[in-house]
Amino acid sequence: MMQFMLLFSRQGKLRLQKWYVAQPDKARKKITRDLVTTILARKPKMCSFLEWRDLKIVYKRYASLYFCCAIEQQDNELLCLEIIHRYVELLDKYFGSVCELDIIFNFEKAYFILDELLIGGEVQETSKKNVLKAIAAQDLLQEDEMMDSILREHGLI
Amino acid sequence: MLTSESHIFFVSLDRRKESVTSKVEDIRSLKSFGYLEDIIGLAIEPAFIVMALKKVKGNFERIFDKNMTDLVRGIRNNKDSEAKYIAQCIEEIKIELKQDNIAVKANAVTKLAYLQMLGYDISWAGFNIIEVMSSPKFTHKRIGYLSASQCFHADQELLMLTTNMIRKDLNSQNQYEAGNALSALACFVSPDLARDLSNDILTLLTSTKPYLRKKGVLMLYKIFLKYPDALRPAFPRLKEKLEDPDPGVQSAAVNVICELARKNPKNYLSLAPIFFKLMTTSTNNWMLIKIIKLFGALTPLEPRLGKKLIEPLTNLIHSTSAMSLLYECINTTIAVLISISTGMPNHSSSINLCVQKLRILIEDSDQNLKYLGLLAMSKILPTHPKSVQTHKDLVMRCLDDKDESIRLRALDLLYGMVNKKNLMEIVKKLLVHMEKAEGTSYRDELLSKIIQICSQNNYQHITNFEWYVSVLVELTRVEGLSHGELVASQMLDVAVRVEAIRPFAVQQMSLLLENPYVIFGLSGGGSSRASTMIQVLYAAAWISGEYVTFLPNPRSTLLAMLEPRTAQLPHNIQSVYLQNVLKILAHLLTHPEPTPTPADVPQVNGEVPAKEGSEDYEPVEEQNESKELNLVEIQEKLKPFVSSEELEVQERASTLFNIIKVYLKLAGKQELNSESFGSELVHFFAGDLNPVAPKAQKKVPLPEGLDLDKWINDPPSESEEEDDEEVDSTQGVFVNHGTQSMAEFYGKTEAKKTYQPTEEELQKQRETRRMEQELNPHYLKSSSKSSPTKKSESDVPPIAKLELNVPLRIPGLASSDKYLEEASKSSSKSSKSKKVSGSKEKGKKKKKRKHGADDENEEEERKATKSISPEPEPIHVVSTAIEMPEGATLSDNEDSLLPENDPHRALNIDLDIPLEPSEVLPVPSHRKTKKSLDPHYITDNNHHTKSKEQPAKAPKSQNSDEHPEEPQKTKESSKKKKKLKKDKKNDHEPLPEENGGDESTKTKKKKKKDKSEKKTSSKHKKSQNSEVNLMLDSLEEDSNLSSKDAYYGLISELKAKNYDRFLTFWSNYFDQNHSRYVILYVQQIRGSLKGKSEP
C-alpha cells in the first residue's frame, strides 16, 4: 500500500502532498525535507528506487517536477512507477500538456484527480477514461451549481 | 446614482482590492440598489441577458476564484518576505471565515488547503472546514472534503462532529458526493468513525453503481485497520465482490484481500482456489500482480499450493511483456521455490528460468530494471547460491556501474558469492574500488561490506588470517572513513579468536603503535583527518598489551605508547594505552632477556618456564640496569597523564605511576628482584579473555535475594547484609593471588586454557610453524635472527621516525597483495593436492570450548596447509567460544513477526468460523428524528433517570427492536453513573458496547474512564448531570432552534458537565445549517472545559 505521495519541484518546493497513513504534522515535515534533499541530490542517470527507513521510495522526474511515492517493503516498485506514470498521463490529459504552473494554480484539481485514481493508498481505477469521466462529471456539477446559484441569487429562477 | 454605484463596482473589480470582504460588501450594496434587476429590466433581447449573466458570473468567479490565484501569485511575488505575506493572508482568511456567506468560506478554505500544502498549520480552522463540508452545494463539499483529508487527523475530537454528515453524504443520491466523502474518510478515519460508519460503507457494496462499490470495497480495508471487529461480519460480502461483474470492483476486492493476507496469511488460505481461478482467467495486469503477490504470501504456509503455482507462473514469465508483472512473477516463484523443499528435480529448471530472466533484467540498459534484477537475485541467493554464483561476472560488472545504488545492490550479492577460493580476489577488487570511489559514504559502505564478507559465519571463507589482518591494516590507511571502530573491533575479534594469528597480529599492531602519525596522517595539531580510524589504535594497544609475549620489541613499543603526543589522542584510547603500558611493563620485568621471537615463546600467557631465564643470565643483568633508568624515564613520561583532565586516564596513570614508584623503592632496598615483582604484576593479567556473547548479560540469572529495583541504601539493615556478602566475594577474588583461585574465579573453562604444552608439543609446533614459513616465500620475519632468504623482496629501509603527513610505506607492514599472489601461485600447484577429509573442518566448527584440543587441531591444520587442495584449507582456526553464564543458551528469535504497533496484529482473525449472531456491525440510529416523533420519549427518559440506581436493566433490553429508543436510554442512564464520557457512544449505537470483544475500544474506554473520573467523582455532580440531561432532552424536543437565549442559558448551566452528550446533540444539527451555532457553543464549552482543567 502506498504510504504517501509527494510532488516537488527541482527547487525543492512542495507542489502536492498526500498522506495515506496518519502522521503528525512534524513528522510529515521532517519526512518531506529528508526526501526532497535526498532525491534532489541524486544524479539523473540513477535508478528510481531508494531504501528509506523501512519503506521503499519510488520517484520519477517529469520535466521540472519530481513525483515521489513511498511504498511498503513487499510492494512492487515497477507497479508504483506505473501508477506515477498513470497519474502524470491523467494530469496531462486533463490540463492538456500539463506544466508545473497548472498544478500550482489548480492544485485542488490535481488532488481531485489523484483522489479518483487512488483511495487510501490503493489503486481504485486503472482506466484513464473512467477517471477523466468522473472528474468531468464532477466539474460539470460544480458549473451547474455555479450557474444555478447565480440565477437563484437574483431571482431569475 | 445607479451609474455611480456600478462604476464603483467595476472600479473595485479592476483594482482588485486586497480582501474579499470589501468586494462582497460591494456586491451586497449593488444588490440592495437593485443594480442587476435594472440591467435585466433594461434588457429586451435575450442575447443581452445571456451576456449580462455571463458577465456577472465571470465577476463572481473572479471575486472568488481569482483570490486563490491571487494568493499563489502573491506568494510568488513576495519571495523575500513570504512568511510575512502569508501571515497577512491568514489574517484575511480569518476574517473571511467569520462571514456568513458559505461561498466566501469555501474560498477561504481553498486557500487554507493551499497553505497547508506549503507547510502551514491550519488545524485551527477545523470547524470551518466542517462547515464547508456540510454545505449542501457540491462545489463546497468537494473543497471541504479535500481540505479535511489534508489536515484532519484520526485523533482529533473534532471528527465526531462529522459522523452524521459523512453518513448522510455516503447515502447521498449523488454518487460523487459519496465518492468525495470516501476519499476524505480514507485519509482521516478514526476508530470511532470506523465503527460508526462501517455499516454504511458495507451497504455501499450493494450499490448499483460500480463507482461506489469500488470505493466502498477499498474503504473497507481502512475500516478494518481501525475497527478490527468489522472484519468478520463484513468479510463474506467482501468475498462476494471477488466475483463482481465490474472488473474494477473485482480488482479492488483483490487489492483489499491481498493487503489483509500479506500480514496474516494463514487466515486466507481457504481463498486460494478462488484466486487461482482468477489468476488463470484474468488478463488485467494490475489485478494479476496483486493476486500473484498474494500467492507469494500464502505459499510459505502451504507448499502444495506452491507446486501447483509453478506451472502457471512459468507460463506467465514466458509470455508477459509487462516488466512489473514479470518481476512480480519472479518474486513469487522465488518465494515458492524457497518454500518447497529442495531436491525436486524439475524445480531447478524454474530457478534457472528465473535467474536467466533476471540476468536479462540486469543486462538491460534501464537502471531501474538492473536494480530490481539485482535485488531479486539477492533473494535467491540464500537458498540457491550455486545458480547465482554462475553470474558472478555480471555482478562484478555491476560493481563498476555509475549508479551508486546499483553498486550497493551488487555488493549485497557479493556477500553470498565469496568462497574460500575467490575471497582474496574479490576483496582485492573492493579495495581497488575503495581507492577510486568518490564520496565517503560509499567508501564506508565498501569497508563495512568487506568486513561483513570476510567475517561471515565465523570467518568461514578466510583461509589465511595473516592476509586478513593485512587487509585490516590496509583499511586503516584509507582516508576519511568513519568505521574506525568497526575495523578496531574486527582486529580485536581476530586476535582474540584466532590464536595462531596472534604473533603476526601483535607484530603488525606494534608497527601501528610505533608509527601512528605516519599511518593516520596525524599532524601535530591533533586528530583531524582520520578521527575515527584512530580508534584502531585502541585495538592495537590492547592486542599488543594482551599478547605482549609476541611483541618483537616490547621496549620500543612501550616507549612509543608513552610519547608525549599520546596525550592528543581520544581519552578512551589514552586509558587503554596506559593499561597496556602496565602489561608490557610487567612482561619486561619478568622477561628481561632480549626480545624473543614469537616462535620461541609458548603460546600460553603466564609464567615462563624457569629454564629460559637461567640460560641468558648475563644479558638479564644488563637489561636490568637499563630498565631501571627506563623506569625513571617512564615515570617522567607519565606525569602529563597523571594530570589529565579525563578521570579514567588520570586514575590509570597514577596507578601506574605509583606501581613504578613502589617498585623503584623496593628495588633500591634490594628487597626484591625485578622478576618476582614482575610476576606479581603479571597475575593481574592472568587468564585469557574471551569474547562475550551479545546477549550474555541478559542471561545472567539474578542471584537469589537480589532485587535490582530496591534502593541500595534503603533500608539500612539490608544494606549491611549486602556489605557482608561483598566482603566474602572480595576475599575470593583479591586476597588469594594464586593462579588457581584466579582460574576458579573465571570458571572451569579457564582452567583448561592455562594448559601448558609439553616440550614435545612445543617442539612440534615450532617445527610446523617453520614449515609454514618456508612454504610462504613472502613471510616477513620480525627479527633479524630469521634466515635472510625469507626476507621480503623489497629492500627494507631502516625505521626512522619521520613526521610526515603523507602516508609512507612502513617496513614490515604487511600488504594484503602478496597473499593474493601467493594464493594464485598455490592454486596452480593444486594438481599435487591431496585429499583432505571434510570431517576435520566439521570438527573444527563444532568445537566449542574444547580448548584442550586446540593445539592438536592446529597441528592438523598446519599439516593440511602444506597441500593445497582446490578448496583451500584454512591456515588458522577461529575459536567460536564465547562467554556465557552457566546454563544459558543462545537464542536469537525473540522478536515476533509483526511489530507491536502494527495495526494488522489486531486483524489476525480466523475468518472460516461461522458468524455468531452477536457479530454484527453497529447500526446507527438517528436519535434526533425518532425522538421528536416518539411521544413516550420524555416519560421514558424521566423514568430512567429516576431509576438510575438500578443498573442491571441495560444489557437485557438491548436487543429489543420494537422501541429502539428505549434500550438506548436505559443504557445511557445506567452508564451515566459510571462514566459520562460513554454517553456519546451509547447515543449512537448500543451494540459495540455489549460486544466487548474489541481490545482497542476497551482500552479507549479505559482512557476515557480515567478522564471522566474527575467529573463524576461526587454524587452531587451526578444529580446535576441528570438535570442537565433532562434539559438536553427537553431541548431536543424543542424544534425552535433559533431561541438563542435558551441555549446561552443552558450553557452557563451546563458548564461542560456533559460535554459529550452536548457535542453529539449538536453534531446532529450540523447537517441542518445550524453549524454556526454548533461552532459557537462547542467553542464556548471547550473554553469552559479548559478553564476547569487548569486549576
Automatic annotation (TrEMBL), chain A:
Domain of life assignment: Eukaryota
Family named by the database record: Belongs to the adaptor complexes small subunit family.
Coiled coil: none
Protein name: AP complex subunit sigma
Keywords from the UniProt entry: Coated pit, Cytoplasmic vesicle, Golgi apparatus, Membrane, Protein transport, Transport
MF GO annotations: clathrin adaptor activity
Subunit annotation: Adaptor protein complex 1 (AP-1) is a heterotetramer composed of two large adaptins (gamma-type subunit AP1G1 and beta-type subunit AP1B1), a medium adaptin (mu-type subunit AP1M1 or AP1M2) and a small adaptin (sigma-type subunit AP1S1 or AP1S2 or AP1S3).
Compartments where found: Cytoplasmic vesicle membrane; Golgi apparatus; Membrane, Clathrin-coated pit
A GO cellular component annotation in the UniProt record: clathrin-coated pit
One Pfam family named in its UniProt record: Clat_adaptor_s
Domain AP complex mu/sigma subunit: 1-140
CDD domains reported for this sequence: AP1_sigma (cd14831)
Membrane topology value: Peripheral membrane protein
Major location (coarse): membrane
Organism: Allacma fusca
GO BP of this protein: intracellular protein transport
InterPro entries membership: AP1_sigma, AP_complex_ssu, AP_mu_sigma_su, Clathrin_sm-chain_CS
From TrEMBL, chain B:
Compositional bias (Basic and acidic residues): 761-775, 941-951, 959-973
SMART domains from the UniProt entry: BLVR (SM01354)
Family: Belongs to the adaptor complexes large subunit family.
Swiss-Prot/TrEMBL keywords: Golgi apparatus, Membrane, Protein transport, Repeat, Transport
Ranges where the AP-3 complex subunit delta domain occurs: 757-912
Biased composition (Basic residues): 831-851, 974-983
Record field: compositional bias (Polar residues): 730-742
Keyword Zinc set for record: no
Principal cellular location given in the protein's record: membrane
Species this protein is from: Allacma fusca
Localization (cell): Endomembrane system; Golgi apparatus
Name this polypeptide is given: AP-3 complex subunit delta
Region (Disordered): 704-1030
Complex formation: Adaptor protein complex 3 (AP-3) is a heterotetramer.
Biased amino acid composition, Acidic residues: 717-728
Gene Ontology cellular-component annotations: AP-3 adaptor complex; axon cytoplasm; endosome membrane; presynaptic endosome; terminal bouton
GO BP terms in the entry: anterograde synaptic vesicle transport; Golgi to vacuole transport; neurotransmitter receptor transport, postsynaptic endosome to lysosome; protein targeting to vacuole; synaptic vesicle budding from endosome; synaptic vesicle membrane organization
Record's keyword annotation contains Membrane: yes
